[in-house]
Amino acid sequence: MQGIVLTASEEFLATAIEELQQKFPQHKQVTLGPGLLWLETGAEHRQQVHKQLIAKPPIFVRHLYSATMWPVISQPELIASVSKSLLADLPSVPLGASVAVQARAVNTTLDWQPRDLKAACDSVLCEQGYQPTIKDPQWVVSVTQARQAVYYGLAPASHNLSDWTGGMLHFRKEPGDVSRAKFKLLEAIIRFGLHFPHGGKALDLGAAPGGWTQELLARGLAVVAVDTGELDPRLNGVKGLRFLQMNVKDLRFSPLEQFDLITCDMSWDPIFTAKLVNGLVNNLSPGGQVVMTVKLMGKRPLPTIQRVLTTLDQRLEVSHAQHLWHNRQEITLHLIRTK
Ligand SMILES: C[S@@+](CC[C@H](N)C(=O)[O-])C[C@H]1O[C@@H](n2cnc3c(N)ncnc32)[C@H](O)[C@@H]1O
After folding, report:
1. 224 alpha carbon to ligand 1 midpoint, in Å?
2. Which of 228, 263, 272, 291 to mutate to test ligand 1, by most ligand atoms within 8 A of the CB atom?
3. How far does the centroid of ligand 1 lie from the alpha carbon of residue 157, in Å?
4. Would you list the domain boundaries of the chain?
């Protein structure tokens, strides 16, 4: 059986299902476990469905892989069958490539450990001239074992939306970090492949305590940070930072004040936030970028996001809209000023 394994957050699994039903009404979906879905495409449609998913990922899906499913009833059988498939598929992978084995068990009726499968696959990889790795793999062996079946796939990491197991991208808080909120920005940068101009100018709305501001400064941007609250004192006097302690709705810039990037992580009504960003488009240079979170605030996710997208100024093109691993009741948007 062929199809796609998709990961969403547990909280928004129903929304991910709704999105997939709209996109692929002809393909059956099965919930494999918390936040985990199987989209049954059959061999003839799998490549086409996968292509469509990668070209425009559903907002609430954070990881996916093309898979073949077969039944398994014991750990030895699981390990033997996956190792055999891997051995058969490896000739399509350039020799010497770094390959990560990402194995998960959900709702399992089998007594087994993903690390045992990883060890077996790693030894196949070594014997065949590949480099087993964990971080930044070029290729990924994905294995999900749910109930009495295994879902196996081998693909370049770029085909999976994220090269972390289930899109669960982890960062470590470093000494001196003023807030964990910066992980949301870091994840958007990695997941969306963003580049900000070194020496450019950023406007950070809802900046306190200053995680995003600190990250932008570290990337060589000058930052105008705005918040009604206070920035962490460790940011006092940092070169390149101007802090405006005020309500963003009272912001007025001269048309000559131009930013390369506007970031916005305000806990505010989603439509107000969209309108606020619209009001600043004239201060965003053509080609400039916006990274913003849209808070869902307990509202129905898809209609809320749809309203935000239709509210945004037409000069802002949506390049990414995604519920990231570090997003809770919110999604992250990346926009580009096109005109
Ligand atoms: C989630 S926090 C931002 C965290 C920040 N991105 C960081 O990395 O530290 C949201 C911030 O939005 C600010 N905020 C909400 N509404 C605001 C408004 N109307 N004007 C200015 N700041 C606002 C809050 O004071 C709060 O500090």
Report:
1. 14
2. 228
3. 35
4. 2-167, 182-337
Could you tell me the fold of the domain covering 2-167? VC0802-like (3.30.2130)
Instruction: Confirm if 276 and 249 have CB atoms less than 8 A apart.
Output: yes
Atom number of ligand 1 nearest to Cα 210: 9
* 250-265 pLDDT, tens digit each: 999 999 999 999 999 9
Ligand 1 pocket residues where CB is under 6 Å: 179, 181-182, 206-212, 226-229, 247-249, 265-268
* Ligand 1 centroid – CA 198 distance (Å): 25
Compute the distance between CA of residue 264 and CA of residue 170 in angstroms, rounded to an integer. 22
Which of the residue ranges 118-127, 141-150, 164-173, 210-219 would you say has the lowest mean pLDDT? 164-173
Q: Looking only at Cα atoms, what is the longest distance across the chain?
A: 69
| CATH architecture assigned to 182-337 | 3-Layer(aba) Sandwich (3.40)
Token pair of 23 as six digits: 């996109």
- Of residues 319 and 175, the one with the higher pLDDT is 319
Ligand 1 atom at minimum distance from 182 CA: 8
- Asked whether residue 207 carries a pLDDT value surpassing 90, the answer given is yes
What are the CA-CA distances from residue 164 to residues 55, 76, 141 (Å)? 19, 26, 11
pLDDT tens, residue by residue, 102-149: 999 998 888 888 999 999 999 999 999 999 999 999 999 999 999 899
- The token pair at 89 is 């598929």
Q: Which two tokens stand for residue 267?
A: 């806990």
Looking up tokens 């090269």 gives 163
